[in-house]
Amino acid sequence: MTKTLIAFYSRRGENYVNGSIRNLAQGNTEVVAAKIKALLPDADVFQIDTTYEYSASYMTCIEEAKQELHDGARPEVKNPLASIEQYDTIIFGYPNWWGTMPMVCYTFLEQYDFSGKRIIPFCTNEGSGLGSSVRFIKKLCPTAIVADGVAIHGAEANSADREAQEIADMTK
C-alpha cells in the first residue's frame, strides 16, 4: 500500500491577485492543497512554514523573498517532520516567488532523503507558471521521480477542481 504526503507552503494575508493586492484568509496554495486532500482522504498533510514571519505587507514580503533568493538562504522549517520514510508519494505545493519556489521549500527538500519517492509538484502563480521550480526540485532530489508538475493560476485556486483532480490522479 502506498502512502501519500501533501506538503505545501502558502502565504495568507496580502497577495497579488489579478493585478491588485488582496487580503486572503487562506493562501492560494493552501486552497488547492485542501482540494487535493478532499480527493485523497488517506493522505497526510504538512504545511511548511518558517520559524519567522515574513512581513504582512505583500510588497515588503516580495523584497524579503528576493533577498533570500539572492543570498541562497535556507530559512528554518518550523516544526519539521521527523521523517518522510513512510511516504511513497509527496505532492509538493508552493507559490511561484521570483521564478522558483520560496527558499523554505528548498530547505524542506534538503532535509529529507527522497530516494525512489515520487514527487508531484504543483505551483500557484499569477502568470509565471512553474518557472524553474521543477528543474530545481530535480536538482535537489536527484534520486526521486519528479513529475512535470501542474501550474495553477492563483486567482483561480478556488475553482481549480480539474487541476486538483489531475494531481490526485497522478498518485495512482
Unreliable segments of 5+ consecutive residues: none
What is the C-alpha radius of gyration, as a whole number of Å? 15 Å
Mean pLDDT: 97
| Cα end-to-end separation | 11 Å
Number of strands: 8
Series of secondary-structure elements, N-terminal to C-terminal: EEEHEHEHEHEEH
Provide the helix percentage: 25-40%
DSSP summary: helix tally: 5
Structural class: alpha/beta
Shape: globular
Strand content: 15-25%
The largest β sheet comes out as: 6 strands, parallel
What does this structure look like?
By secondary structure, the chain is α/β, with parallel strands linked by helices. The chain is built from five helices and eight strands; from the N terminus they run βββαβαβαβαββα. The strands form two sheets. Strands 1, 4, 5, 6, 7 and 8 form a six-stranded parallel sheet that branches. Strand 2 and strand 3 (20-24) form a beta hairpin. Helix 1 crosses helix 5 (161-169). The longest helix has 14 residues, at 58-71. The protein is globular and about 40 Å long. 39% of the residues are buried. The mean pLDDT is 97.
Topology, element by element:
Elements: E1 4-8, E2 13-17, E3 20-24, H1 28-39, E4 44-47, H2 58-71, E5 89-95, H3 103-111, E6 118-125, H4 133-140, E7 145-146, E8 150-153, H5 161-169
Parallel strand pairs: 1-4, 1-5, 5-6, 6-7, 6-8
Antiparallel strand pairs: 2-3
Helix pairs in contact: 1-5
